[in-house]
Amino acid sequence: METLLEIRDLSKTFELHNLGKQIHAVSSVGISLREGEFVGITGKSGSGKSTILKCIYGTYRIQHGSIWYHSKRFGKINLAQASEREMLYLRKHEIGYVSQFLSAMPRTTARQLVQQAIVEMGEDQEFAAEETEKILAHFELDEELWDSYPATFSGGEKLRLNIARAMVKKPRLLLLDEPTASLDHDSKLKVRELIEQLMKQGTTMLGIFHDLEFMNNLCDREYNMQNGVFSHAATFTNS
């Protein structure tokens, strides 16, 4: 299988100008993902896990290293040097990101948020409407909430909506930052079900999890992170 993502010697430092300090979030991290793989990153809070995902997604700019991604549109591209226009395109069409927090447009309903995500992929309104209802129902989001503003949702409802919006696009690369953090057991199973479905469809995934049981028989490899570096890696044979 072809390599879809390769991170080489990635380092990220945050400057605390008011304190005159530097915080080294990640140091000399390297990782590669082949098409269709699911790689998990574990570790304590503050160990640098989320920083890696945000560097891939372009939320953070890095000081050192490269992030090579094999794009359908641009070919092999270093995300660390990609233009804002290139990153916007990739986020819309190729790279999905699920975090614990929902960033939603004001005065946009849950239904509209998901439909917009599908239309961005080039689908028509009728198809988008059907797929939106399917995925909102899959996550058992109360129908009364579909045409409500997410600002009124509970934390768990917002997270389910966030996951639905990212997964419905069926991205080539999906970044998962604690996607099950505040979900109950049944909702976690719904997320797992969709992850398994996306894996069958060939989506490549890099995910951060504290819930090791959730990762069981999902991940091809797991990297444990401590103090900004990978302490060890494990490869699994999934049954």
Structure explained in plain terms:
With 239 residues, the protein is α/β, with parallel strands linked by helices. The chain contains seven helices and ten strands. The protein has helices at 49-57, 84-93, 110-120, 125-138, 155-167, 185-200, 212-215, and strands spanning 3-16, 21-34, 38-43, 64-71, 75-78, 95-98, 173-177, 204-208, 221-226, 229-235. Strands 6-7-8-3-9-10 form a six-stranded mixed β-sheet, sandwiched between helices. It has a four-stranded antiparallel β-sheet with strand order 2-1-4-5, covered by helices on one side. The longest helix has 16 residues, at 185-200. The mean pLDDT is 88. GO terms for molecular function: ATP binding; ATP hydrolysis activity; transmembrane transporter activity. This is Phosphonate ABC transporter ATP-binding protein. Residues 5-239 form the ABC transporter domain.
